[in-house]
Hints:
This protein is an alpha+beta fold. It folds into three domains: 8-40; 46-125 and 146-185, no CATH class; 231-360, no CATH class. Helix content is 28%, strand content 43%. It contains six helices and 15 strands. It has helices at residues 2-40, 116-124, 234-244, 285-301, 326-342, 347-353; strands spanning 43-45, 48-52, 57-67, 70-83, 91-100, 103-109, 112-113, 146-165, 168-186, 189-199, 205-214, 220-229, 252-262, 265-275, 308-318. It has a 15-stranded mixed beta sheet that branches. It is elongated and about 90 Å long.
Amino acid sequence: MQRNKIFIGILAIFVVYFLAKHTTLFFVKNTIEKEFTKITGLELQLGRISYSLLTFSGSASHIVLKDNDRPLFSLQKAKLNLSLLPLLSQKIKIQSITVKRPQVMLYKKGEYFNYAKLIAPMQETSSPRPRKTASQKKEAFVFPFKIEINKIRVKDFMLSYVEKFKSEEFNYAITQGNLTVTHLGYPHMENAQVELSMLFPQKTKATFQGTASFTAQKDLKFNGALNMKNLDLSRFKIFMLEHYGIALDSGSSTVTSEISLRNTKFFTKNKVSVSNLDFTSGGSIGGTVLTQLTKPLLAAQKITDQKTMNFEFTMNGDIADKNLNYIDLMGNAVASGFYKQISNTGEDVLKQIEDLLPSF
């Protein structure tokens, strides 16, 4: 009889715990979804969330973020591990966050871009804010805890970017990527380390290393170096053939970039190296004519004696600019850098044939 009472008591405890846990998760889930939508204007859908008091860890799965019913972000599973003792000193210390198979879908058409609401807080700090009078000031919500995150690992992520401008469409994709970020914090973050590896279509590979800092005034600073190998040269080959009558064989290209981000404004310095150059006409009449016209200029540059062509270009802009056209921005930046490289010498020849060369 005594054993039955003990068993019933233990069972009752588990039932109460189970009900309390799932009731709490239900309200937490609904609260997070509503508050996130209220703050950002984006629709958040949480699938299943759970936590364990034994390991002090939690997880969430099947997370979807939308803007006007257009998917922006989806996540298969995320898991975090906490440290308990720092809570006593009003600090949330997260040992690790592991995110599996997230997908980011960015879309821009005209002045609409589905990530506008995410970057709005950074955009506001890009210009000085007017001071508010005492009557205009409201008590702002202050999160009572400091946050420290030792490590975030993102495994097997995918990213797609689609931009439509008039009759043109620009598609950019990362088919597979892995990201590691260490030493994050809130409300201040200083020199968080970022390491990123990416795989693009046509077997293009890239690595990135950088640092990020963030202040309580929402000022973001981000600096890093990007290296890309085995770039797809199909568009570059068409450009060279149509404009200069230069047919590239099985060439390959590498790009190294210095990247800086200040809130929503980005600044890049890029070095491009194209190898395996083959200066032929490509078998077309137009190509043959252009080859003859541009041959003096190329000879003056001694480009025809080289197997590798190097040039540099800069690309700057503001991701919050609704009128920014990435197609034109990137195309003009690359073409301008290439044009500058081949026109450094042979200026007299260039003037003679400048009407025959493309303008950028």
